[in-house]
Each structure stands twice: as structure tokens, then as C-alpha cells.
Specification:
mainly alpha, 2 domains
Length: 439
């Protein structure tokens, strides 16, 4: 089997990417619906205004701005402000450039159909980077399994369709981690330096993306590579400081007042962390997806048992979690704040499957029930309505995995049930994506 994977690895990853592209492109301009977040327009307007007028302009309702204009665009009220300084410009410039290159003629020609192609590109790129990073750290099997799951999990697929900074952050964060992982093995300093440049540039897309640089800095400290840590941060920090040059250039007083507002913007409390599990926002609607919940269980398991083997995913997730708690906790209808957790949760699930699936019968059953029943709710129920019979058949089929605990010589049946169920979960992922709507 392993020789087959190695021989046809290119075919497999291309097939996975095509599947991920297909799922993400279906209903790309429909779900999430227009207005689920108008940040899609905010980022694009920022970039278009910088390119065309050399001054940042976008929508914001914060009172710190004095240059304000009320407009109605596509039947929606916006407050346009200038200069727009609450976020760095890089992601806006990239999103705005994409819009202009694909036919958008100006700020007031921005439409979902003209900008979500960019999110499709980022979504496919993220699948590829999950594969590349996982292959470098864990090998081909984990890489293919991780990219397949990441390509099909409903929450990840649908969330990747929106033009949000988080969807830009994910693939480049993984790229920086891949470069560092390769540097640790090879000792080629250019890999570390390019990773540092990427992490620095990410802070010019959104300030919380300093999480990428901090996580790699902590990885070097964890490995007792203090010289590397110092050289790395010496590249990241000066790039980050360019945001202050940018802000002071346009309006220093406004820039500082916005920083003060951002640092006290959220109600920081335990509820904001607990909401990760009690308020499963996709964008502005709930979506209960067992993959995400089980990902947290798998992550805590590998963190507690095998930190030394998995520090390249544990430290980045914990770093982003710290930034999340410190600066960007839960806010109603802001589900995209959770997206950067997802690649690491998927990797944790695959490591769990590698270690326990089909071997620990109880944990295998727990995984199948947790993920399978949530997918049944997202796929079968919208199509045919709830059925007690179908629900119980699923439970009984998953329960076959535990037969060896009670009946001798049933290992083959348990093995068949567990692996057939895992294949079924991937099919239910696909069905759930096609079923998704917000009506």
C-alpha cells in the first residue's frame, strides 16, 4: 500500500485538490450569502482605493473617524471613512488587485461574483499547504489523509469561500512553518530568513497575524536554538513596524486612537473562550460540525501524550489560541476568527486516526459517533427529514467496531466496520457541503 501511495502520490494530491476545488466552487457566490459579512467589501475597497487613489478608504462604523460619508450600496447602508487605518494594507492590496485584474472597474463596481474567486484560490492553496507541511513533518500518509479531510470538512469548505483575512493567513502560516521545519532538518539559513519575511509580511495583513512570528520564535526557543530565535525576530519586527510608518504617514492621531480602541474593543472573559464550543459560528450562522469538536479532543490528546513529537503543530495552535484570547475572542457572527485553528485540528485528527483508529475500539466508536452523527444531521436530515430508523442503523453500524470487547474472533468485522464508516464520513462530508444553505 505504501509503495502504491509513493508511486501515485502526485495523482492522489491532484485528485484531492480537484475535489476541494469542486466543493468550494459549488455555490461559491451563493453560500455564505451576500451580507453574511461585508468585511469582504471592506478589504477589497481598502485595496482598490489604495491602488486607484493612493489613500486608504473603506467602510467602518467606529466613531474615531471624522471624514465619514453615508452611502447606500447594493441596498445596504455603509459608512465610508478616510483614511481607513484600523487594519494594515497588505491583504486589502492583494484582494483589491485581484478584483481589478478580473474586471472590477472601481470601488463601486465590487461584487461578490468579482471577488470570491480570490477566496477559491486561497482555499485550494490551503489544501496544498496542508499537504506540503504535513508531508514534511509526518510523511506521505498523514499528508494525504490531512489534505483529504481538510478538503472536505463542511465548516472548512464553506468558510473558505469568503474573502476574509483569515483565509489569506492560513496558507502562508503553513508555508512559514514548512520552511522552518525544512530549515531544522537542513540548516540552510535562507529557509529561516524567508519564513521570517513571510511572518513579517503577514503582520502587514492583520496585526494578530503576529501569531505566526511568535509561534516560530517559540519553536526555536523550545529547541534551545536561541541564535535562530534572535535572528528570526530581528527580521519580523522591523517589517511589522512598517505598519506604524504607514499609519503615521496618513494620520498619526487617528492611527493611535484606533489602536487604543482595538485594544479595548472586546469583552474579554471566559465566556469568549467557552464560545468556541457553545457557539459554533461558521460565518454568522451556527454549524455543528463534529470534525471541529473532535479536532479539539484529538489536539488535547496529542498535546498531553506526545508533545515532543508534535511541537510543530502544538506550539502554533497554542500561540494563535493565546492571541485569540488576548485580542480577538469570540464576537457574535464572526466565525472566521476560528478558521486558523482548523488546519492544526485536522492534523490532530489524522494523528489520532493513525495512532488509535481501529486499534482502540472504544475511541474509534467515540470518533465515529461524534463525527458521523453530526454529518448525518447535515446531510440526510435536510434531504429526507429525520428518521429514527436511519439514526439507529448508523449507531448499530458504528457499534460493530466494539464487538471484539465482547465477542471473540470479531476483529475482522470490527476492522471492516470502522474503515467502511471512515469512508462513509468522507462521502457525508461531500453531501453536507452540497446540502448547505442559509434559508
Amino acid at each position: 500500500m505504501e509503495k502504491l501511495l509513493i508511486k501515485f502520490q502526485f495523482v492522489f494530491i491532484v485528485a484531492i485538490i480537484i475535489l476541494g476545488f469542486w466543493l468550494r466552487s459549488d455555490n461559491l457566490y451563493t453560500w455564505p450569502r451576500l451580507g453574511s459579512t461585508f468585511d469582504e467589501y471592506a478589504w477589497t475597497w481598502l485595496g482598490v482605493s489604495l491602488i486607484e487613489d493612493q489613500a486608504p478608504r473603506s467602510w467602518s462604523r467606529h466613531p474615531q473617524y471624522s471624514d465619514r460619508e453615508d452611502i447606500i450600496y447594493q441596498k445596504t447602508a455603509f459608512v465610508l471613512v478616510k483614511p481607513y487605518l484600523e487594519h494594515p494594507p497588505l491583504f486589502g492590496l492583494v484582494a483589491g488587485s485581484y478584483a481589478l485584474l478580473t474586471g472590477t472597474e472601481g470601488m463601486f463596481d465590487v461584487r461578490i461574483e468579482g471577488i470570491r474567486g480570490f477566496s477559491l484560490v486561497l482555499g485550494v492553496f490551503s489544501i496544498f499547504m496542508v499537504y506540503v507541511f504535513a508531508k514534511e513533518v509526518y510523511g506521505l500518509k498523514v499528508a494525504l489523509a490531512s489534505s483529504l479531510i481538510y478538503a472536505t470538512v463542511p465548516t472548512i469548505v464553506i468558510g473558505s469561500r469568503i474573502v476574509q483575512n483569515e483565509n489569506f493567513f492560513i496558507p502562508f502560516f503553513l508555508l512559514s512553518l514548512f520552511l522552518v521545519a525544512r530549515y531544522i532538518k537542513s540548516g540552510k539559513s535562507w529557509l529561516r530568513n524567508v519564513s521570517a519575511i513571510i511572518c513579517g509580511l503577514l503582520t502587514l495583513a492583520k496585526v494578530p497575524w503576529i501569531a505566526a512570528g511568535i509561534s516560530i520564535f517559540l519553536i526555536f526557543l523550545y529547541l534551545r536554538r536561541y541564535s535562530d530565535a534572535g535572528k528570526f525576530i530581528a527580521i519580523v519586527v522591523p517589517i511589522f513596524l512598517l505598519f506604524f510608518v504607514y499609519g503615521f504617514y496618513f494620520d498619526s492621531k487617528l492611527f493611535l486612537s484606533l489602536w487604543q480602541m482595538q485594544l479595548t474593543r472586546y469583552d474579554l472573559a471566559f465566556n469568549s473562550v467557552f464560545a468556541l464550543f457553545t457557539s459554533p459560528y461558521l460565518v454568522d450562522r451556527f454549524m455543528i460540525d463534529g470534525w471541529i469538536y473532535f479536532g479539539w479532543f484529538a489536539f488535547f490528546l496529542i498535546m498531553a501524550r506526545e508533545l515532543k513529537k508534535n511541537f510543530l503543530i502544538v506550539i502554533p495552535l497554542l500561540t494563535y489560541f493565546a492571541i485569540f484570547v488576548f485580542a480577538i475572542p469570540n464576537e457574535p457572527s464572526h466565525g472566521w476568527y476560528r478558521y486558523p485553528f482548523y488546519p492544526f485540528l485536522v492534523l490532530s485528527i489524522v494523528l489520532f486516526l493513525k495512532e488509535y483508529f481501529g486499534k482502540n475500539y472504544l475511541l474509534t466508536f467515540f470518533f465515529l459517533v461524534f463525527v458521523g452523527l453530526s454529518l448525518l444531521q447535515l446531510s440526510w436530515v435536510p434531504s429526507f427529514g429525520f428518521s429514527f430508523l436511519v439514526f439507529r442503523i448508523f449507531l448499530l453500524f458504528f457499534g460493530l467496531t466494539m464487538l471484539p470487547y465482547f465477542i471473540p474472533r470479531t476483529n475482522r468485522l470490527s476492522h471492516f466496520s470502522s474503515h467502511a464508516s471512515l469512508f462513509l464520513l468522507i462521502l457525508l462530508n461531500i453531501w453536507s457541503v452540497f446540502n448547505y444553505n442559509e434559508q
